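Session log. Operator J.P. requested a structure for one protein chain; no other inputs attached. Running the standard single-chain path with token output.
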Amino acid sequence: MMKYSTSPTPTNYPRSTSPLPAPANYQPTTASAAVKRYKYLRRLFQFNQMDFEFAAWQMVYLFVSPQKVFRNFNYRKHTKSQFARDDPAFLVLLSVWLFLSSVCFALAMGLTLGQTALFVLYVVFVDFIGSGLIMSTVLWYVSNKYLRVDIESPDVEWGYAFDVHINAMFPPLSLLHCFQILLFNKLLVHGGFLSCLVSNTFWLASFIYYIYITFLGYSNLPMMKNARVFLFPLPILCLFYLGTLMASWNLSHMLMDFYHYRVL
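Structure written below.
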């Protein structure tokens, strides 16, 4: 029988008018980063110990109300002395989702069996895991170096930085690797302004999701200041979006060409 963790369900959250509850009375961290990492990696192979139901709930709410997901991180800090997840169920589900969506993406591009296998390996291990490790490390370093309230405040956990990244990646992956495929052969594969508009709007929504969820993740931490800097790219992003439309630069076509070039 599957064992579920004690993570709160959606009905357990306190009512609040603010986007995220004010953190207070956190338990001090007792385990080292190495111990936390060991426990997390060990649980990657203990599927009966993972709370897949709650991980699926988090995925849904990352689309409709990402603030609620980060309230659970505050709850975990109160009860387990860490912000980062100790249950790899979300990572496992996201990896499965990425694998399936990548296969669908490869079929839509008309790749052969060998090219599909190579494409999936690239997407999972380079685009997702590799870039995720780099981005998490960069944001972890920047937040600890420049955005902490003071040097005496606790460090941002690298595991939490990674959690924020994979949270922020789920909506873009779903939009670009799954929902966009439904329109690929009917609309996006053809040229014209409508194809460019729909394609680039998918990309704009994906980047907005990533930036906003990243902002929520770091603004949730009590040791952080000026987390609004994560929102600064939004005006530039909107201007870039308008520029791609005026130039008829279809970003999805560019992605398809890049993927074809990489597996050929």
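Operator note: DSSP finds ten helices and no strands in the chain.
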